[in-house]
Amino acid sequence: MSTGVPPSEWLVAHRGWPDRYPENSLEGVRAVLEAGARFVEFDVQITADQRPVVIHDNDLTRLTGRSQRVTSMTLAQLEGIPVATRPGEQAQVPTLEAMLDLVGEYPDVTAFVELKRQSIWRHGRRLAVEVVMQRLRQAPCPIVFLSFKWRAVRLAQQMGAPATGWAFRPWTPLSRMLASRLKPNYLFIRADRVPAGPRPFWPGPWQWVIYRVADLDVARDLRSRGADLIEVDDLPGLMERS
Q: In the CATH scheme, what is the homologous superfamily, with its name and number, of domain 7-241?
């Protein structure tokens, strides 16, 4: 793997720029896009009236101090509640349509759209995947349907998703077998779950995306060992230090 490839070609902005803006906000995503991000990743929950919105937590306690659940609220109810992940900064929860429209303003940027498992549990796998896929089919940018639930990824493939990603937790022979059957375009794994060794990554028709990385040297080491993309919270800062 070439060491001369600039970080902008392999860094993924995790939830926008959560080191500077509320996570998953339009403001944070626009900031990383302006900084030159080529890949962004954000989370999707589905409201009670089946509207996909860009937010990580189903339980709003961490983000708002209110013990309410996104999957039990309508979009109108959610729109009246600002969220904050940093002191003194608030943002509205964007719809998936609004976020995709924003990304579409920047040519050649790919969006990883993660359907959260709480929405799958609340609405059922087929409905949850179809609600997201309805928006992704109309996306003005390259998109990747992403989930930790491999059956949801398989269903998205059957529904015509142009690209898919599977995020998995245990690095086990079972996970490798499921990956081989699923054949997603991307495999996501947390950095501290990657085994030691010079070439730990399974070969296959996928690209590897490693998340929970904060240091550029660690990112480059993972790249030298076979990782393709590295997901980070401070993409602009790491690009400046490169």
A: Phosphatidylinositol (PI) phosphodiesterase (3.20.20.190)
